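Recall that a protein's primary structure is simply its ordered list of amino acids. Everything else, from secondary elements to tertiary packing, is in principle encoded there. The following example makes that idea concrete.
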Amino acid sequence: MDTSTHFVMGVGLAGLAYVDPVVASNPTLAAAVMIGTIVGSQAPDIDTALRLKSNSLYIRNHRGLSHSPPFLLLWVALITGAIALFFPNVPISHVAGWTAIAVCVHVFTDLFNTYGTQAGRPFTERWIALNVIHIFDPFMFASHVVAILLWAFDLVAPAPMFITLYVVIALYYVWRVAAHAKAVAKVKQLDQAKGKTKAHYMVIPTISWNQWHIVKRYADGSYDIGKMEHAQLIWNLHATSSTHAAVEASRKSPEVAAFLYFTSYAVAEVEELSAGYRVRWADVRYRHRKQYPFVAVVVMDRNFETIDTYVGWLSEEKMNKKLLSARS
């Protein structure tokens, strides 16, 4: 999920902690637990700081090792230990327990969007992405905000309210899993060409419950890209990677290597420049306003030597501005 949703879930779990009579009867402990759940709900994303060093390092590692079981234990230990220094007289086991819940909920919810995590490390580096819920889900965010406001203005007791909220959210997840399975089946049914060529379908949630982004991957590495809205399937384009020699040369770039480590749904296109070539890799899973904002770009000379690179999320306009000096 996005940072704002993780934050409100951290506050929400602090409210849920009032089901624990020890927490409910001790305001100091309740405050310590709230710090633990809020920080715990953000801790696995501390690897966002890798952006300060380089985008390629961030792309390769974000939601990787920091979301793995060993690091979940580390986050709980570090957060609980820090809280114990400032709240020496509270029953620290309760803080540790609710902090652990917050950390685990963070990783669990991240599994259900398209970005996914490497939650299986160190046993596997496979990215686990269930494609069930959009990275920002309005229902998830809004329901937490409403519950938090009701609690803040002392209109509803926290324990029954947050129990109800999380039962509803659990049912919401069940419904979204079922809706995704139904959407996958519907896409296969609607795609009249499905029997002609063997292909794999990826059905990706959008911010709308009634619209899905569709990626159909063929065995040759090409893709059909479209959308399904209200049971109507529309294919927008067919994408395939260029076979130009510059594409293979671009793979030597650390930025492209990081990009391809993260995604197996990439296509490359080559633009010939006066000074050489621009190779643009795009992840076809992410489509926004007819563009693919998650890219890796390499500008090289005629000898395939790198002039400039970029990897990350960026609009076409900003990317072109950044690389403008290297295109002449």
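The mean pLDDT is 93. The radius of gyration is 23 Å.
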